[in-house]
Amino acid sequence: MSEAALAPNNVILTDRAARRIGRILSKQGEGTVLRIAVAGGGCSGFQYEYNLVKEAPAADDLVLSNGDATVLIDSLSLEFMGGAEIDYVDDLIGQSFQIRNPNAVAGCGCGTSFAVA
């Protein structure tokens, strides 16, 4: 698979992120997936929530699968995340999941919240 696997609705889960998610999920119970959601809050208006859950996808969830990684995004969050890239970065500053979201017009200094127009 390429570095970034294009998913429905143009949300991309990179291979780096998929490998890290797969390692995290392998330490959880069978059937655990990562749910990413957009919630109100943070210093810029919206923030991403990451939760490990044991649940079947809802009918309107976007399901991203790459290797051992499964990520669910609900339809409301997807409205804010269309065209986004979910990546994992490990550099001198630290390790983190990063969402590069073309819908975000501003973000906070800590990088965990964003604003949309």
Q: So how many helices? A: 2
Radius of gyration: 14 Å
Order of helices and strands: EEHEEEEHEEEE
Question: How is the main sheet built?
Answer: 6 strands, mixed
The helix content, as a percent range, equals 10-25%
Strand content: over 45%
Question: What is the second-level CATH architecture?
Answer: Sandwich
Distance between the termini: 34 Å
Structural domain tally = 1
How many strands appear in the DSSP assignment?
Answer: 10
Using the coordinates above, name the CATH class. Answer: Mainly Beta
Across the major sheet, the strand order is 5-6-3-4-10-9
Would you tell me the structural class of the helices and strands?
alpha+beta
Task: Kindly report the name of the CATH homologous superfamily.
Answer: HesB-like domain
Point out poorly predicted stretches: 1-8
**Gross morphology:** globular
Can you give the mean pLDDT?
85
